[in-house]
Amino acid sequence: MSNHPPKITATHVNVWYGAKKAIDDVSIDIDQDSVTALIGPSGCGKSTFLRTLNRMNDTVANARVQGDIRLDGEDIYSPDMDVVQLRARVGMVFQKPNPFPKSIYENVAYGPRIHGLASSRSELEGIVQTSLKRAGLWEEVKDRLSDSGTALSGGQQQRLCIARAIAVDPEVILMDEPCSALDPIATAKIEELIHALKGRYAIAIVTHNMQQAARVSQRTAFFHLGQLVEYGATTEIFTNPREERTRDYITGRYG
Ligand SMILES: Nc1ncnc2c1ncn2[C@@H]1O[C@H](COP(=O)(O)OP(=O)(O)OP(=O)(O)O)[C@@H](O)[C@H]1O
Ligand SMILES: [Mg+2]
């Protein structure tokens, strides 16, 4: 595993939607140098848990989060935490690519501009270019930066959304089923990208695709009915799980 302390530590996390408990006493560390996969049957709470890590549940009207979540030791639910800043540090990529209805350039430049990350136009252009390169999209869009982001293919839109997350210089990237709307070729591109980004950013990815979890992650967390059933090295989880519920799920017996 990692030589660094965990990037994120989540301890005794509970989440309710109204009276319904969706996450039940989950404790997890997210490694700096690993890709962490969150797997489990539909409705088990993967998205809900992922959203606790950058306070996206704050935007869900009836959601209530309890527990301790720290980013580099800092309590992200502290009243002093600047949530806009937090979401730049812990970026998110969603299932459905959601570029702004603006140019490709503006999609990437927007974040750095509002966070004041560039002191000149050329510096901003540099950030846009670097982000698109890291997202593996530059070659495909360098001659059409003023075209609308929504005019790209689904797979390109998803890489644009990754570029947008990268542009504000995040520390962690959360991905919630980033490939589920993509074809196998676009999916392979995103998986390559995840490999390339590993180490630079701590990454947590929700996926329903067991092969994908095995390919891209080094650590895997299996959720079931709001609980964390098992968490460990991906190779262990997939070849020698400790829990029967994990074995049943990864062998496709339910879910
Ligand atoms: N906004 C909401 N209001 C009320 N209940 C919700 C809300 N969002 C999720 N839930 C409930 O919380 C539980 C966990 O949902 P969540 O979306 O986190 O599951 P998931 O593991 O991401 O599922 P999937 O694999 O289908 O995306 C489910 O029972 C779901 O119905
Ligand atoms: Mg989900």
Number of strands: 10
Could you describe the largest sheet, including whether it forms a barrel?
A: 6 strands, mixed
Question: Which CATH architecture of the domain at 8-96 and 170-250 is right?
Answer: 3-Layer(aba) Sandwich
| Number of distinct helices | 10
Indicate the mean pLDDT.
95
Fraction of residues in H or I helices: 25-40%
Ranges where pLDDT stays below 50 over 5 or more residues in a row are none
Q: Which value, in Å, is the CA radius of gyration?
A: 18 Å
Q: Could you please say which CATH topology of the domain at 8-96 and 170-250 applies here?
A: Rossmann fold
How many angstroms does the end-to-end distance come to?
29 Å
Spell the H/E element sequence.
EEEHEEHEHHHHEHEHEEHH
Structural class: alpha/beta
Tell me the strand order in the biggest sheet.
6-7-8-3-9-10
Residues in β-strands, percent: 25-35%
> Class of the domain at 8-96 and 170-250 in CATH?
Alpha Beta
CATH H-level homologous superfamily name of the domain at 8-96 and 170-250: P-loop containing nucleotide triphosphate hydrolases
Q: What coarse outline follows from CA principal-axis ratios?
A: globular
Q: Enumerate the distinct ligands.
A: adenosine-5'-triphosphate, magnesium ion
Describe this structure as you would to a colleague.
It is a single chain. This protein is an alpha/beta fold. The chain has a domain at 8-96 and 170-250: P-loop containing nucleotide triphosphate hydrolases (Rossmann fold), CATH 3.40.50.300. The chain contains ten helices and ten strands. The chain has helices at residues 46-52, 83-89, 104-114, 121-134, 138-141, 154-167, 184-197, 210-216, 234-239, 244-250, and strands at residues 8-17, 20-30, 35-39, 63-71, 74-75, 90-93, 172-176, 202-206, 219-224, 227-233. The strands form two sheets. The protein has a six-stranded mixed sheet with strand order 6-7-8-3-9-10, with helices on both faces. The chain has a four-stranded antiparallel sheet with strand order 2-1-4-5, with helices on one face. β4 (63-71) and β5 form a beta hairpin. α3 packs across α4, α4 (121-134) crosses α6 (154-167) and α6 (154-167) packs parallel to α7. It is globular, with a radius of gyration of 18 Å. The model has no long low-confidence stretch (mean pLDDT 95). The structure holds adenosine-5'-triphosphate and magnesium ion (MG). The site of adenosine-5'-triphosphate has 12 residues, from α1. One of its GO terms (cellular component) is membrane. InterPro entries: AAA+_ATPase (IPR003593), ABC_transporter-like_ATP-bd (IPR003439), ABC_transporter-like_CS (IPR017871), P-loop_NTPase (IPR027417), PstB-like (IPR005670).
